[in-house]
Amino acid sequence: MFWPFNQKATKQIARIEISGAIGSGTRKAVLKALREVEERKYPALLLRIDSPGGTVGDSYEIYRALQRLQPKVQIVASYGNISASGGVYIGMGAPNIMANPGTLTGSIGVILRGNNLEKLLERVGVSFKVIKSGPYKDILSFDRQLTAPEEQILQTLIDSTYEQFVNTVAESRRLDPATVRTFADGRIFTGEQAVEFGVVDRLGSEEDARLWLAELSGLDPDKAKLQTIEERKPLLSRILQSQVSGFTTVVSAADWVQFEMSTSGQPLWLYRP
Q: Which is the catalytic residue, given 83, 85, 141, 172?
């Protein structure tokens, strides 16, 4: 459940945090939180992003929801340790962006990976009989190599999604698409470099972002506190999170593996170190 209604919401700054790989769960939680911001009439929103990106569709829907919210709410995106690829795309939904000087950002581009287990299956003597309606119905099948025509089809798909990314950055940051392409080649760069490229406005901490938001929305910086909007986690989850860091690392690694498996074969706006 979300925080109960607060009569003083109009004097507070809403805060939504996006962390980890972006998938359907992130999208649902963030869209629900954004509706909460609108319904409770917060004058300002601090969007804290600490994410390497994720799925194309989920990142796009969060970006569009932020766009729709812009006329009603002042928004500042604050980049944490990393805001790359889909994290950048979501950030384009905010008219004002701040990053730490050492924030890892960029990785503007698209990646699609599939699992090829053909040699392993041959070794263990497993094969599949496939009956399909067209030659490309089982494209990226894990039990065989891609054909040249299939590679061309997938490259066309990637190129189209890449152009969408470039054009969104260009439109949001008022840059020429050709300029965006000079640094939108998949490379990562720092927050300091991002300011030089024009994809980040200012350098600063989350507290600096809060002060900037107070200024933009005409709030008293001493009284305009952050109100984090999030779903309250079950008691068991909160207990587990309070345990030793090693356990938390194992849980995070398991979540990442699950994300990798569930998104195999999907175009991703994702930084893969």
A: 85
The structure tokens listed for 253 are: 């690694």
Euclidean distance between CA atoms 206 and 16, whole angstroms: 12
Rounded alpha-carbon distances, angstroms, from residue 39 to 5, 43, 72, 90, 112: 10, 11, 11, 21, 37
How would DSSP label each residue in 41-95? Answer: T-SEEEEEEEE-EEEHHHHHHHHHHHHHHTTTSEEEEEEEEEEETHHHHHHTTSS
137 is catalytic: yes
Residues 164, 168: Cα–Cα separation, whole Å: 6
pLDDT digits (tens, 9 = 90+) for 139-187: 877 667 888 998 999 999 999 999 999 999 999 999 999 999 999 999 9
Angle at 156 between CA 150 and CA 161, to 5 degrees: 130
Dump pLDDT digits (tens) for 12-56: 999 999 999 999 999 999 999 999 999 999 999 999 999 999 999
Q: Catalytic pick from 41, 137, 223, 233?
A: 137
What are the structural domains of the chain?
Answer: 9-270 (3.90.226.10)
Where residue 249 falls among pLDDT bands split at 50, 70, 90? very low
Cα gap 178→157, rounded to integer Å: 20
> What pTM value is reported for the model?
0.85
Q: Provide mean pLDDT across the span 64-83.
A: 96
pLDDT value for 228: 95
172 carries an active-site annotation: no
Strands 104-106 and 188-190: antiparallel
Token pair listed for 150: 């299939």
